[in-house]
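Final report, Chapter 2: Outcomes

The project's central promise was a pipeline that accepts a single protein chain and returns its three-dimensional structure in a standardized token representation, suitable for archiving and comparison. That pipeline is now operational. To close this chapter, we reproduce one record exactly as it appears in the project archive, with the input sequence first and the structure output second.
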Amino acid sequence: MTEYLSPFAADLIGFAGSFFIVAAFAYSNLTAQMNALWFNVANFLGAALLTISLTVNFNLPTMVLEIVWMAIAVFGIIKALMTHRVDAGAAE
């Protein structure tokens, strides 16, 4: 991917990913009632952006961490969507 993305651009993408993960973490600690879907989407997006960055500035342990982070976030997104459907069905 280095032929498509400069190291500087990869760093900017990585910083954006870090922002999403830190924002989700801060949100989870500051909110009275957390929106699980938003939290997991922000974590997935952050991990995905960091993974893109890591294709240029490769670090295997961090790449593995981001892949696991995305997998956990996908699980959380599915769970949040299923919970939302159950709640919407109960409201009818």
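Archive annotation: The mean pLDDT is 94.
This record, like all others produced under the grant, will remain available to the consortium after the project formally closes.
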